[in-house]
Amino acid sequence: MPETSMTSLTRRTFVKLGAGSAITLAGGFFHANSESAVPAGPLRIAIISDVHVHNIYGNYDFDGLPDAQTGKKLTIRTLKDSVNSTRIFNEPYFALLAALDELAKQQVKYIVLSGDYSDDGQQPTVEGIAAILTQYEQRHGMRFFATPGNHDVNRPQGDDSSERMLNADGSSTMLSSKSDVKLGDAKSLIVTAKMQALGYERGLPLMKPFGFFKRDDFLHWETPFGDSDELSKRQYLARSPDGSKQWNIVDASYLVEPEAGLWLLSIDANVYQVKNGSEKREEIKGYSTSSDTGWNALLTEKPFMLPWVKSVVQRAKAQNKKLLVFSHYPLVDFLDDTLEDERQLFGSNSFIKRTPRPEVAEQALAAGIRLHFSGHLHVNDTGVYRGSQGTLVNVAVPSLAAYPPAMKLATLHSDRVDIDTLVLRNVPQFNHLFPFYQKELDRTGEPLGDILKSHDYYDFLHHHLALLVRQRFLVKDWPEDLSPLINTLNCADLLWIAQQQEPLGAKALPDAAQRKPKAITGTEGLQDISLLTLVTDWYCLRNGSDLAWQDIPTARVKQYRALLAAYTPTATLPPDSLQYRFGLMLKILAGYINDEPATRFVVDMQGNFLTV
C-alpha cells in the first residue's frame, strides 16, 4: 500500500499565522445554516492534485490493446510521449486507485481534488474518473470536492485534442478530434469527437456529485453569484484586450458545508482571455488557455472573486466554522526566493510565467486567506509570504503523475492545522503496461535506460524525472551552450571553473587534463559525480523539497554543500561567463536546500514562524 513518508524531517515544524486565518472561526449568506454545530473533534481532509487520469479502459473509438488480465481493451498513450512530458499518461489510473485505497484504510472521509483530475477533459476520460469516485463514495462513504484545472477545462468552450495511442506491434495511432493534425511517427489517424476536450458547460455536469452542484445532503452551498447551481447563472463577462469582443464565461467556484461546522471553499482560478477578433462565444479558439495565467490574471479578470472570498472568511469566523481554501494555482512564489536568479539563467520560461506576483499574496491576505492549498506545478513545496497584513502559507500539493507522487493530509483542529504528506510508493499494477512499452522500445530503439526495471511506482517516476531532465529540460529550458557541458563535465570541473579568476566561455574550456581544481576540504570525490547527476538532483529538490533527500545519498549531499561553500563568483564577472551562470545554478540549488519544510508541519493561527 502507499506509504507515509516522514523520515526526512526530525522535528515537526510550526508556522504561526495570526488572527483571521483560513481555519477561521466567522452570518448567514443565501441558505447558510448559522445554527450548525462545530465539529466535535479534529477533521481530516486529504488533498490530491494533478492526478491527470487518462481512462485507459475508456471508449475512444479505437480498437486498442487486449488486456489479458481484465478482458477489456486498453487505450494507452506511448511511453515516448510520457518521458517527454512533465507527467506520465497511463499509470495515474492505477495511482488514483491506490491513493483512494490508502485513504479508505486511514478512514479519511473528505477528499479535495485541487485540479487537473483529468488528462485532458474528454468525455470518456471524465466519465471514467466520475465512475471511480462514485465507487469509492458508495463503498467507503468518501466525499469528493473538486476544483477545475487547466487540463480539465483548457478553454471555456472546449478544445481540440490529439494523442498518440499504442498499437499491439509497438507502433502508434493518432487519435484526434480534428483532421488537420500532424501525425509525427504515428502510423495512422482516427478522427473522433470522443477526443474533444470538454468545456465548462459539457464537462462540469459529468462531475456533478463532487461539489460543483448542489446535493440534498449539503447543509449549505453557494457561489460568488448566489445560491443557484445553474451554469447560466454562474457567469462573468470577459473582454478582449482591444475591448471589441466580450463573452460570458462560467466560473465554477463554490462554497460547501458537507457537515456541520466544516466549510470547503473551492476557487476556480482558471482565467481565459477573449482573443481580439473572435467571431462568437462558442468559438473554441476564441480564448487563450489558462496554463500560465492563474492568480496573476484573476485579480483583474475576475474582480468579483476576492470580495466574495472575504465575505466567506468573515462569515466563517462569525459562525465558528472551520474553513479550508483551495484552488488549482498557487498564491505564493514557489521558487524559494530564486525568481530573479532563474530569470537570469533561463529567461522567461513556464515556471517564471506561473509565479504569482507579490500583490497576489497581499490581496489574498486582505481577503482573509491565511492558508491555501494549490496544485498545477507538480511540486511538493511550502510557500510562506510575510506581508504587511500578516502571513500567508501556500501548501503546494505534488502530483500523483510526477515525481514525487504524493498527497497532503490536513488535520483541522480548533487552533491549528497539522499537515502531513502521504507518499505513493507501492501502486498495484504500476508495471501492468510495461510489456506493451517493451514492444514499443523494441520497435523504436528509444534509449530510455532502466525505466522498465523500476521496482515500484515511486522509482518509476524518479526514473521518469531523470529522463525528463535529459530529453526535455536540457533541450528546451537551459541555454544552448550550457547543455552540452552538463552532459560532459563533472562536479570537480565545476569547482575548477569557480576557482578561475578570468571569465570563461563555454567554448573556451581547456582539456580535461588541465582542469585540476585546488583541493578543498569536503570536495573529495567530486570528479565521480557527473554534472548531469547534480542537475538531476537539482530538479529532484525543486520538485520534491525535503522529500527528495531520501533519493540523494548523504555523502553526495555533503559534497554539494562543500561545493556551494567554495563557489562564490564575484559580481565583477560578466553575466555570460561560466562562473557567473554556474554560480546562479548553485545559488538556486542553495535556495532549494534551505527551503521551508514541506513534508510534515503545523500551521498555527497565532503569530510568527517558528520551529520546535
UniProtKB/TrEMBL annotation:
Pfam families: Metallophos. Residues 43-379 form the Calcineurin-like phosphoesterase domain. InterPro entries: Calcineurin-like_PHP, Metallo-depent_PP-like, STPP_CPPED1, TAT_signal. One of its GO terms (molecular function) is hydrolase activity. PANTHER family: METALLOPHOSPHOESTERASE, CALCINEURIN SUPERFAMILY (PTHR43143), SERINE_THREONINE-PROTEIN PHOSPHATASE CPPED1 (PTHR43143:SF1). This is Metallophosphoesterase. It comes from Pectobacterium araliae. The lineage of its organism: Bacteria, Pseudomonadati, Pseudomonadota, Gammaproteobacteria, Enterobacterales.
